[in-house]
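Changelog-adjacent note: as of this version, every example in the card shows the full chain rather than a window. The one below runs 252 residues end to end.
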Amino acid sequence: MIALAGALVVGLSLGLLGSGGSILTVPVLHYLLGQGEQQAIGGSLLVVGLIASAAAVPHALARQVHWRNVIWFGLPGMAGAWFGASLSPCVPGVLQLAGFVVAMLVAAWKMLTARPVAARPGAPAARRSAVIAGGFGVGALSGLVGVGGGFLIVPALVLLAGVPLLQAVGTSLAVIAINALTGFARYVAVLGAQGVGLDWATLMFVAGVGVVGSQFGHRIGRRLPQPLVRRIFGGTLVVIAAAMTADLAGRL
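Full-length structure tokens:
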């Protein structure tokens, strides 16, 4: 039941904010469902990819996805995700989780200190290279430690590509989906080479529950004050990061 609640929160986060799903998926799979570090990271990419795909649909139907920036940000992100997942066998699982905790704290900081951002008109070619580089970097982070990177994608789309905030959320979901599924495709081969299997039934169950949560999150997202949602989510991340840090410290 706790894992079920966690899966719902993952979906709610993606539906509400366009980010945060994988930040919660790895702890759900690793700590609540007892999966190994790399199993949880690889599995989270599938779960988040499926949830983000479903969550992007209502945004796409409402024309709130900027497809040109899905290409500019997403294609380098796919390459980065493949690269990051390929590096994963060289990094011990404990260190991957430590990197995950750092990403979680950065996300919490962004959520707790975020101010409303206004889109910059246009997307000059001078900033296009920054969008491409940002896409690759987020993708690499996604593939290596299992984070979707929405907490970085949304502000990057707004500030670098000039995408309006509401449209940036939908665009972020599309980018997260292709990054996560690309990283997962590589992870399957990486884990297979190590003789590590995936619990497909559990992953599909968590993804299914998360999809339901994402649709609900999208519906209520327009009714709740975003600053309040961000503060609650940021505080939750701090608590989870602190618990994970204590656990990792006990292993070292």
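Structural remarks: The chain has a mean pLDDT of 78.
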